[in-house]
């Protein structure tokens, strides 16, 4: 393991969530890699989303909670440029071995990453209301 990988792992911390012998490779990757990165990068994701909202010139801050949730879903799922920027913020903190594992099953892992990120943003919608 090179110095970069060692430093990234130290920065991210331990796995988040249980890993069982019957856990799938995707679930293990999610708990060992994706969740710690999402936690570490949380503030930048929130700021990126606020920037996205402000650039979209929407009335996001006046929306109902349900409409805010829909806006978050659409922003992450349908805006390819925004989604790719978010993916880049996650992938940049993979180790070399994690990246090699990621490219073997990137489609399913991308779905997991984006769904976890959407839930994280939805959980913080109150923070997004005070901008």
Question: How would you explain this protein's 3D organization?
Answer:
The model has no long low-confidence stretch (mean pLDDT 90). This protein has eight helices and no strands. The longest helix is centred in the C-terminal third of the chain and has 18 residues, at 106-123. The chain has helices at 3-12, 25-40, 42-56, 65-78, 80-91, 96-104, 106-123, 125-129. The N and C termini lie far apart (42 Å). It has one domain. It is mainly alpha-helical and 131 residues long. This is Glyoxalase. It comes from Flavobacterium suzhouense.
Give a nutshell description of this structure:
With about 130 residues, this protein is mainly α.
Which features characterize this protein?
mainly alpha, elongated, 131 residues
Shape: elongated
Gyration radius from CA atoms, angstroms: 16 Å
Q: Output the helix-strand order.
A: HHHHHHHH
Q: Pairing-aware structural class of the strands and helices?
A: mainly alpha
Distance between the termini: 42 Å
Oligomerization category of the chains in this entry: single chain
The counted number of beta strands is: 0
Could you tell me the mean pLDDT? 90
Please bin the fraction of helical residues: over 70%
Low-confidence parts, pLDDT < 50 over ≥5 residues?
A: none
What is the number of independent domains?
A: 1
For the biggest sheet, the summary is: none
